[in-house]
Amino acid sequence: MTEEVEIKEGLQGVYIAKSSISKVNGEEGKLYYRGYKIEDLAEKSTYEEVCYLILYGKLPNSKELDSFSNELKKERILSDETIEIIKRMSKKAHVLDTLRTAMSSISADDPEPYSSEEEKNVHKAVKIIAKTATISAAIGRVRKGKDIIPPDDSLGHAKNFLYMLTGEKPDNKKAKLMDVMFILHAEHSSNASTFAALVACSTLADIYSAVVAGEAALKGPLHGGADEAAVKMMQAIGEPGNTEKYINEVLASKEKIMGFGHRVYKAYDPRARILKKYLDEIDGNGEEEVNKLVKIALNTEKIMVDRLGKSHGIWPNVDFFAGPLYMHLGIEPELFDVIFSSSRTVGWCAHVIEYWRNNKLFRPLEEYDGALDLEYKPINER
Length: 382
Prior knowledge:
Layout: E1 22-25, E2 30-33, E3 36-37, H1 38-44, H2 47-56, H3 62-74, H4 80-89, H5 95-107, H6 118-143, H7 157-166, H8 172-184, H9 192-202, H10 207-218, H11 226-237, H12 243-252, H13 270-282, H14 288-312, H15 318-328, H16 336-355
Antiparallel strand pairs: 1-2, 2-3
Helix pairs in contact: 1-8, 3-6, 4-5, 4-6, 5-6, 5-10, 6-7, 6-16, 7-8, 8-15, 8-16, 9-10, 9-16, 10-16, 11-15, 13-15, 14-15
Active site: 262, 319
Enzyme class: transferase
Protein name: Citrate synthase
């Protein structure tokens, strides 16, 4: 008698490792980076400080932060070869295809792409974080037929990113919002892209390969792309007054309202709660298209929370509110995936470095349910 095998589809409920990087409490709607509440980090910190925290396991002092920020700035510049890849691919390829290929090229400039020394891999992570932002901004420029803008070392990470993307130095409010967006997407435990990066690194591939694996997993619409899908749904609604009718029709047809529900959170996503405050501030104070999207987002959130929040545990997630805010910052929906990747590289790298401390090659089992002992017939008898 064959023993019954329990299949954990999607590895649901399976623990793959111990980690001290982040804690997602889905039942209570809480998120921590290295023990710090996401609300405190979003309000009081900067992306550079959060990157240091995630990579080194502690908040930096002033000297450490200055040194770290300067290292990030030094690593922003791209090689001519990487720029050529961006120019060649950006007008016809998916943004993540371009980003993956450009990221692969970065390893060619590293004389020692793989190292078992943790300190060296942390510095490679800093390089990856800095260059991913520059690559992402360059992709956005080339897609619109505009010249690539080199980084400005007088600007912090978020402000410099918006400058390289839009050609204008943002005011402090927009720079803070971009900073918050980077912080909220920096890390989220072992989701699909992080797990993909861990599988790659478990073979002892280099850290660049692991990040490329994460970017590949991010391309799928069940992981990355949700914020783009949500904002396109809002664009399809068109006018704030159409919101309830649209939702009624979608729910009646048993289809999904994009940006609601989460694999882990059974309560209000804390990142979404933070972003809702920014939507409230922008409501009526942005450009006409953004104002409509913001109003539609807020209307949808109210209707869905009233109907399905407490009763069904379906709450807005971070992707739902991200789209209108990105557009307020001058970022088109087609770039949302590379913004996510620009934010998340620090999380991927930190998990890779942590996993290598006690590396074990991932080799799960599968239950075979096909035929056995079939008779092979020569091709002229088939």
